[in-house]
Specification:
Number of helices: 13
Helix content: 25-40%
Radius of gyration: 30 Å
Structural class: alpha+beta
Number of strands: 21
Length: about 575
């Protein structure tokens, strides 16, 4: 399998005889432009396209299609050619790539051995796009993933390449790529009518033949990274689709109010049949707009739901639900995980569609499991505290299970021993660095030890002398679980905890606080910076997360094992067995 490139990334080409495979959901036109050292294309005769498919060293397909195979022999190119630009265009310039699945380009050698792959993600209103560039570099050739789209279409793309007669060449490419019967019919008969919705589906593919979602269908160097990026892509797609629906609803409601106000403002229309007709017409326009917006949103949801079902069962343990089969017979990994699942996110318009909430590792921010009451939570305080600790234990167990043996450890502060029951699973696994710290003295001792550890690692990293750490120094990352905060904490302990929250992550110490903020009211605003520095999780569903794209409020649900199940105990048993074996 070749390298998976991301936009802007390049890769050396070990061969000069190549094939470039293009795969798209709908029919596309493919062309290859031969440019000079600056990438400039001097005239239309230097572009291989369906109307002139063969140039020295380059051959492209002769018609629009969903699957293409381009042939390139870079050794046959003129020495004046320094860059080969592979471009895609939709046959109908009114169409857009954002309405289809992302196209994919794959470069292989003449024997079919894959060299690189590139998925052209992030396209929206564009109808033409530069997919790849093949270019000379230091006596050899390289390929660069470009993915630059043009909403103004093929003419703008060709003009950007410096082509003097870009409009004429663009028209010739579009004309050559149209089916012969469409050319015979003329422009008005050979293209979809602009009076209704345009069907961008390939004419030879029925709805039942549409490609099924594929797990890992995103950019990345490994399957784990591709799955992570795919989940984030689903997160973004759902956010933007919902934003479009909400925007349409706001616009439709505002327009309806305005039209009703205008109808009522005219005494001649306000009463009688004319008024009723105006109101019905306004309501009909509102309903028609909302119907189209809802239909588009439903299509997006159907696609995302199908993708989520496929992706969920392909997720590795770090990303998987606790009821996933991947936990059966779990074995300790040999490589560090890239991210971890904290729970699921959903929106009210699609409450059944859960998007895994993944965060990159190592954690850059500490975590806070809020054991206080939430607006929609009616459980009593004792039950909430137990659930919050269950969330913390499940997360600690997951982190232990997905790190190689010896690369991750857990330390617990439980001043009053209130969490002895749930924390017992961690204690029995042997994964704790020692017994949970109890009482004010235990809290002070644990925090002082961790503060010294962070100071030591920071000095070693700052001085570029990590090899100077003491012999036997435990370099494993450490998760500090603090239960029932702020019980057992004095001012000095609070200062140290804030230090660990701010400086600990860079030194491999991560904070997981289980607390009800109301219990810390006596400290007033002193703890405000601490709460703000932590990512808040809740044991029961609560809408407090905002996405980075459009700012929707998402409901978070923590990742917990099935009620009555023993999967966490089984996983911790595997962790314990692996630790004993590794000693």
């Amino acid at each position: 399998m070749g390298a998976e490139l991301v936009r802007g990334q390049n890769h050396p080409l070990p061969r000069t005889r190549l094939e470039i495979l293009i795969s798209a959901e709908v029919a596309v036109l493919v062309a290859a432009a031969l440019g000079d050292e600056g990438g400039r294309v001097h005239d239309g005769h230097r572009i291989a396209h369906p109307g002139a498919p063969v140039l020295p060293g380059i051959e492209v397909p002769r018609a629009a299609a969903a699957e293409h195979r381009l042939s390139a022999d870079l050794g046959e190119l003129s020495e004046a050619v320094h860059r080969v630009t592979v471009l895609l265009a939709l046959p109908d310039s009114a169409a857009r790539f954002g309405a289809t699945a992302a196209p994919r380009a794959t470069v292989t050698d003449a024997d079919g051995t894959e060299i690189v792959r590139f998925t052209l993600t992030g396209l929206d209103a564009e109808s033409a796009v530069v997919a790849l560039e093949l270019y000379r570099r230091q006596g050899g050739w390289k390929v660069r993933a470009v993915g630059q789209g043009y909403a103004e279409g093929l003419t703008a793309l060709l003009a950007d390449l410096g082509l003097p007669d870009a409009p004429d060449v663009a028209e010739a490419i579009h004309e050559a790529g149209r089916p012969s019967e469409a050319r015979a019919a003329g422009p008005s008969e050979g293209r979809p009518s602009t009076g209704g919705p345009i069907d961008y589906t390939h004419p030879g593919r029925q709805a039942s033949q549409q490609p099924q979602p594929i797990a890992g269908d995103a950019a990345g160097w490994s399957m784990e990274e591709r799955l992570h990026n795919q989940v984030w892509g689903m997160f973004e797609d759902l956010a933007r689709s919902t934003a479009a629906l909400r925007s349409a609803a706001d616009f439709a409601a505002a327009r309806l109010d305005r039209e009703l106000d205008e109808a009522l403002a005219d005494p001649r229309v306000r009463i009688g049949g004319a008024g009723d007709a105006a109101r019905k017409a306004a309501q009909a326009r509102h309903d028609e707009l909302m119907g189209r917006a809802k239909a588009a949103h439903d299509r997006d949801l159907a696609q995302l739901t199908a993708e989520a079902e496929v992706v969920e069962y392909a997720l590795p343990p770090a990303y998987a639900r606790w009821d996933s089969p991947v936990w059966h017979g779990h074995r300790m990994p040999t490589e560090l995980p890239q991210a971890v699942r904290l729970g699921d996110l959903h929106l009210p318009e699609s409450a059944y569609l859960r998007i895994p909430m993944l965060v990159r590792l190592p954690l850059e921010r500490g975590l806070w499991v809020d054991s206080g009451a939430t607006p929609a939570d009616f459980t009593d305080s004792v039950e909430r505290r137990r659930l919050a600790l269950d969330v913390a234990v499940a997360l600690a167990a997951r982190l232990l299970a997905v790190h190689p043996v010896g690369e991750f450890s857990v330390q617990v502060i439980d001043p009053a021993g209130a969490g002895a029951g749930p924390l017992g699973a961690l204690t029995r696994s042997g994964a704790l660095t020692g017994p949970p710290a109890r009482g004010t003295a235990g809290v002070a001792q644990a925090l002082e030890s961790l503060t010294r550890r962070v100071d030591l690692v920071r000095m070693a990293i700052g001085g570029g002398a990590t090899e100077a750490l003491p012999d036997g120094f435990d370099t494993a990352r450490r998760l500090l679980i603090v239960n029932d905060f702020p019980q057992g904490f004095d001012d000095r302990a609070l200062t140290r905890l804030r230090f660990l929250a701010d400086e600990g992550p860079a030194a491999g110490v991560h904070l997981l606080l289980v607390a009800d903020r109301a219990d810390a009211g006596e400290f007033g605003p002193l703890l405000d910076p601490l709460w703000r520095s932590l990512t808040r999780l809740t044991p029961s569903p609560d809408d407090h997360f905002a996405d980075p794209w459009v700012g929707h409020t998402w409901t978070f649900e923590a990742s917990l094992p099935p009620q009555g199940g023993a999967v966490v105990q089984q996983v911790l048993g595997a962790v314990s067995a692996a630790r004993i074996k590794g000693k």
